[in-house]
Amino acid sequence: MGGFFGTVAKASCVTDLFYGTDYNSHLGTKRGGLATYDAEEGMFARSIHNLESTYFRTKFEDELDKFKGNAGIGIISDTDPQPIIINSHLGRFAIVTVAKIVNLEEIEAELLSKNMHFAELSSGNTNQTELISLLIIQGRNFVEGIENVFRRVKGSCSMLLLSEDGSIIAARDKWGRTPIVIGRKDGAYAATSESSSFPNLDYEIDRYLGPGEIVRMTADGVEQLRKPEEKMQICSFLWVYYGFPTSCYEGRNVEEVRFTSGLKMGQKDASQVDCACGIPDSGVGMALGYAEGKGVPYHRAISKYTPTWPRSFTPSKQEMRSLVAKMKLIPNRAMLKDKRVLFCDDSIVRGTQLRDNVKVLYEYGAKEVHIRIACPPLIYACPFVGFTASKSPLELITRRIIAELEGDPDKNLEKYATTGSPEYEKMVSIIAERFGLTSLKFNTLETLVEAIGLPKCKVCTHCFDGSSCF
Ligand code: SF4
């Protein structure tokens, strides 16, 4: 997915920019980048590093001296190298995006046919942030250009632009699929994907940008350039999986939502278990809620080796993902032996990690293994936010089972997506059987949406029920 941070201050922005961007590290694993604008020298400074083998702070801390100025933007990117800096009839500007462009090839062909060109081909493909900047400069001003992006891009796109007047323009995706939160403190404003960037940098949440809203930030305040749209489709998976526990979107805190969904599930679950445990990190909040709702103790029967696996690191290659998943979690025989353990996890995508985890739990003495999942089964691939874990529907365990049962992975999807239908029950029982689970239950869509606390029509739930605004 990716996450960004931008700040504009009366004094140097560099420290806040460095840490604020770093606090988005759980959202991407490919590239990190920073850009600042020094108004005295009239110069941009930029740096981009590969994050596939190490962390953002390690890569950037030795070169912070090169960044100067009161305004800057930073990105943890799951896709292309960013920020891009371009010179145009709108002036020079740096841009970072959190985007997924489904129709990239179509837009690219159109821009090339208009004699435009792409220069940022370092990763071998067209850089989607560069493509977005080319769409922007087709406008007579930034707002018109960003509206052009909103009109043309299928998928999603939120962005921050650092312009040479020293201000930052923040524009949230037109359907609000990805968030932007504005923070303020004495002498500075900031915009970020994750509000967990704010507390340690002393920012207070000022506002949540609405879908399609565009604002200009200076050190003195925030000016609205475009009103938000009424309709919203914020990604519900932000609360389930992507988000850091202390983050809030639309005023709803990630940990609270996870806790509430676990609580509700625990209150109505008839299973007999000795304890509830969470698969670190995203299953922990739900497990704490489940334990309270069910009236059983919360135990840490698996711990994450935090000294060297401090964040949710998801490499793009399957073998590496499996190795990382195995290495970072350590089972605890003392807490597992002869117990009926119930584990909460965020979701099941391919099922590979769950299968490996369950095998280890039995090997370490668990008598029964029950699994509870924070969301409904993932039936549809995500076309909107670059959910890297499910590039193709056929990678989903649900679709592979549907293919086996129906002879066609696309058949009767609505039935399999309906909790309690015979097809749904069959699919869930096959997953449980394949992994040797004593029991397996997924949260219902209603409970998840209730825990999020927004009206269903404002939340994207496409990957669970196929609903869509297009
Ligand atoms: S399809 Fe799923 S992952 Fe994609 S935006 Fe919607 S809820 Fe989020």
TrEMBL record:
Domain Glutamine amidotransferase type-2: 1-220
GO molecular function: amidophosphoribosyltransferase activity; iron-sulfur cluster binding; metal ion binding
Pfam families reported for this sequence: GATase_7
Highest taxon in the source lineage: Bacteria
Residues annotated as signal peptide: none
UniProt keyword list: Glutamine amidotransferase, Glycosyltransferase, Iron, Iron-sulfur, Magnesium, Metal-binding, Purine biosynthesis, Transferase
Annotated pathway: Purine metabolism; IMP biosynthesis via de novo pathway; N(1)-(5-phospho-D-ribosyl)glycinamide from 5-phospho-alpha-D-ribose 1-diphosphate: step 1/2
Cofactor requirements of the protein: Mg(2+); [4Fe-4S] cluster
Reactions catalysed, as given in the entry: 5-phospho-beta-D-ribosylamine + L-glutamate + diphosphate = 5-phospho-alpha-D-ribose 1-diphosphate + L-glutamine + H2O
Amino acids binding Mg(2+): 282, 345-346
Documented EC number(s): 2.4.2.14
Keyword Mitochondrion: no
SUPFAM superfamilies named among the record's database cross-references: N-terminal nucleophile aminohydrolases (Ntn hydrolases), PRTase-like
Presence of keyword Metal-binding: yes
GO biological process: 'de novo' IMP biosynthetic process; purine nucleobase biosynthetic process
Cofactor-binding details, from the entry: Binds 1 Mg(2+) ion per subunit. Binds 1 [4Fe-4S] cluster per subunit.
Residues at which [4Fe-4S] cluster binds: 235, 382, 460, 463
Family: In the C-terminal section; belongs to the purine/pyrimidine phosphoribosyltransferase family.
Name the record gives this protein: Amidophosphoribosyltransferase
UniProt lineage: Bacteria, Pseudomonadati, Bacteroidota, Bacteroidia, Bacteroidales
